[in-house]
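// run 5 | inverse folding | seed 20
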């Protein structure tokens, strides 16, 4: 074949398809304008005792924004401001479930550490957010109209999950799932109501039997598959944005529910401080869930088109669509 024939054949051949970007590549390429700073006022820093090799273990926690779970969030802020957790421990680690910290002697009234004054007693009705007025059954359109009144809700997610789009919006625990200012939430037409969901690294408030709802003194982080059955039954107050491995890798407790039967096995907490008290803490930001980059990231996460994948899934669970968080440069 002459060079001219070769060039003619090459020109007639279709151009190779542009390789599909992975979700991680989309996040890495997201412009600065698509990232939203996380206020230092919404961050707590929990320093655990160093590991056996002497390595520091720092867990950075972001608190849930208004209007969700604010009674418990306020209590957590008070507990951190009074350094109540300093010197306590992670005393329960249950495989594929949670790591829990607070006062390991709290069940013994003679040994329990006194709580600071001013903690709110939050009713269980506050597990969800509802509009004013009597409870009712809303239509799908009425639910969407109400959710749209909460600033920062689910526009980007609905752009993907509307009829005919790439991602199916189905959930066994709720009528809808969506994002609110970077947080995964769910909603029901009954009420109507909306609530934060339990995903990996979510932080919730441990409690006794209802009607107790917990003060926020005893907290847990999810370290396994998303336990969505806990939604609306315990309060979610935040999430770990850095250092979840220091909790998920702790030895599992052998006693029922993962409690350490030997107090010596507990992991000591050196301190829990607000970010303002930690001068060396970096700034953080999250990929805005209303941004074009998040839309592409969500689509790529639900429909992997990289060469490794044989069949795009065509859908994604709200907890599998982890909102990217990074240190600000």
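// decoded
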């Amino acid at each position: 074949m002459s060079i001219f024939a070769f060039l003619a054949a090459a020109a007639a051949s279709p151009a190779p398809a542009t390789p599909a970007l992975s979700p991680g590549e989309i996040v890495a390429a997201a412009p600065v304008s698509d990232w939203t700073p996380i206020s230092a006022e919404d961050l707590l820093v929990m320093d655990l005792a160093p590991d056996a090799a002497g390595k520091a273990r720092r867990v950075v926690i972001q608190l849930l924004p208004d209007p969700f779970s604010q009674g418990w969030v306020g209590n957590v802020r008070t507990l951190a401001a009074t350094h109540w957790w300093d010197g306590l421990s992670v005393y329960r680690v249950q495989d594929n479930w949670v790591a829990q910290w607070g006062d390991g002697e709290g069940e013994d009234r003679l040994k329990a550490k006194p709580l600071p004054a001013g903690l709110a007693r939050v009713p269980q009705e506050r597990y969800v957010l509802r509009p004013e007025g009597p409870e009712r059954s809303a239509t799908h359109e009425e639910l969407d109209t109400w959710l749209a009144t909460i600033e920062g809700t689910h526009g980007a997610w609905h752009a993907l999950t509307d009829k005919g789009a790439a991602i199916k919006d189905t959930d066994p625990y709720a009528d809808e799932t969506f994002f609110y200012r970077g947080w995964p939430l769910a909603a029901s037409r009954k009420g109507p109501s909306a609530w934060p969901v339990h995903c990996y690294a979510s932080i919730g408030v441990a409690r006794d039997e209802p009607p107790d709802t917990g003060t926020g003194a005893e907290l847990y982080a999810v370290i396994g598959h998303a336990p969505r059955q806990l939604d609306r039954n315990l309060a979610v107050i935040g999430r770990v944005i850095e250092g979840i491995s220091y909790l998920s890798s702790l030895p599992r407790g052998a006693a029922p529910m993962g409690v350490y039967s030997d107090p010596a096995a507990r992991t000591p907490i050196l301190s829990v401080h607000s970010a303002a008290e930690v001068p060396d803490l970096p700034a953080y930001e999250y990929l805005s869930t209303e941004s074009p980059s998040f839309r592409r990231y969500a689509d790529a996460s639900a429909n992997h088109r990289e060469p490794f994948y044989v069949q795009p899934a065509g859908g994604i669970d709200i907890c599998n669509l982890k909102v990217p968080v990074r240190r600000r440069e």
